[in-house]
Every structure is written in C-alpha cells, then in structure tokens.
Amino acid sequence: MSAVMMDGKTLAAKIRRDIREKCAAMRRPPSLAVVLVGDDPASAVYVRNKEHDCAECGITCADHRLPASATQQELLALVDRLNRDAAVDGILVQLPLPLHLDAQQVLRAIDPGKDVDAFHPENVGRLLLGQPQYLPCTPSGIMELLRAYDISPAGKRCVVIGRSNIVGKPMAMLLLQADATVTVCHSKTPDLQSHCLQADILVSAVGHAGLITADMVKEGAVVIDVAMNRGQDGKLCGDVDYAAASEKAAYITPVPGGVGPMTRAMLMKNTYLAAQRRRNG
Ligand code: GUN
Hints:
This protein has ten helices and eleven strands. It is α/β, with parallel strands linked by helices. The strands form three sheets. It has a six-stranded parallel sheet with strand order 1-11-8-7-5-6. Strands 3-2-4 form a three-stranded parallel sheet, with helices on both faces. The protein has a two-stranded antiparallel sheet with strand order 9-10. Bound molecules: guanine (GUN). The site of guanine (GUN) has 7 residues, from strand 4. Guanine (GUN) binds next to strand 4.
C-alpha cells in the first residue's frame, strides 16, 4: 500500500483565501503584533513567514523587535503597551526567548483575549475544560487536516509522542475531546514501538529525525509528523521515515508541506477571530 499524502500546503492556501475574504469584509483589517527578542535565525524565519501570511490574508502585521540583551521589565512593558493598544487585536511573542528571560511570566502577561497562540494559562485551562476561546495553532491545524480528509478520531486509538505545552499536551486534549482514546508517550516511555503499533492515528512531535521507522507503524494508520528537523543531507525532514512509513500507512503528512503550513493558517484564523470578537465587544 502507498499512503495518501495529506497536503497541508494546499489546504492552508485555501484557508488563507477564505480568511482574506472575511478580513476584506471588515471595516478595519485585523492586526497582529509580533514580538521577537534577540536574533535566533530560526525565529527570524518564522516571523518573516508570519508577515508574509498576514499580507496575503489582509491582516496588518506590526513587528516589535527587542535586542537579545532586553530585560524582563522591558519585555513586560512592551506586552503591557500592546495589551492596552486598542488598534492591536492579537499578540504573539515568538518563542524561544533568550535564556535570561522568564517566558512563562511573559505569556501570563498577555491579555488572554489577544492571545492568538493560546499559550496563556487561562486559554490553556479553557481548552482543558472544553470551553476554548482560541485553539493552539499546531494541534488545531492537525484537527483541520484530519477533517479535510474525512478522518474522525472518534473511537480511534491515538498515540501522541511528545508532551510539550505547545504541541503534545494540547494535541492530546483535542483528540480526547474528539472522542479518541489517547496515549501520550515521551522520552521516558519504555518500548515506544509497542505503543506506536497500537495507533490508528500516530502524531509525532519530538524533533528527532528517523525516530519513527516503518516497523512502528500499524498497517492502515494515519501518520502525522509535526517535527521540523534538518537531516544529515541538510534537507528538512520530520521524525518519520516518510518513504518507508508510506508503505504501511493509509495517510501521512509530508515534511515540509504538511503540518507547518496548517499551523501558520491557524494563526491567521485566530487573529481574524480575535479581531471579530473585539469588534463585536
Ligand atoms: N515557537 C515555535 N512555535 C511557536 C509558536 O507556535 N508560537 C510562538 N509564539 N513561538 C513559537
């Protein structure tokens, strides 16, 4: 069997077109403030991509750059200013922050109504309770991708590898709310293979090229690769051995062109929602 490739790139482009139409119908375009501290090259690329997506969707994007030497007080003062700025609908502080800064305190300082990443404890708690106002971008992008291919998690065995606050934990929560039976595996899980072989839907978010080999994939499974690694050949790759796993899986996401573009599209969706909520008061 050769798996169906789940084309996140094409679906994300369609979602951006829909958002562009909705934004064009608003009296004032939504606005996103992106905060970038320091000069991490990967973060600079992510921020540039977000600016590009905003331009395509008709969302105003304002960049706020602070030097790597910025203090916690300077960063908190910027977040406070953006919270109080009525022209700002969404705020995103690009992670990771330089090590001397307390990221959790910064995320707690963002107005939950402007928290388009859904990283604030209020939004994390609301997700846990099944009462979200924003969904975190990567897990919600994966749920949209599953929906687009008519894959329902209800009653399925789902295995999520990775327990980060950004991906693993919220992914498990969304799958649980979609009536899946969810197992979360991590670096201390013994015999990862035995868990993976049970998975009807396998989500890998580790960041370790070659982690998921074909002998860890159940025949007919859905394989979602969240990772973005640089392979030995210098090319982008995920956690999954794509070619080999494709022979066992029914559906599989490529890297790049799978989850990544969906994550970015969900940020645009959240920014549009933030603007709409604020306009409707
Ligand atoms: N760094 C890596 N992924 C993300 C994300 O989704 N949001 C933010 N703010 N920073 C990130």
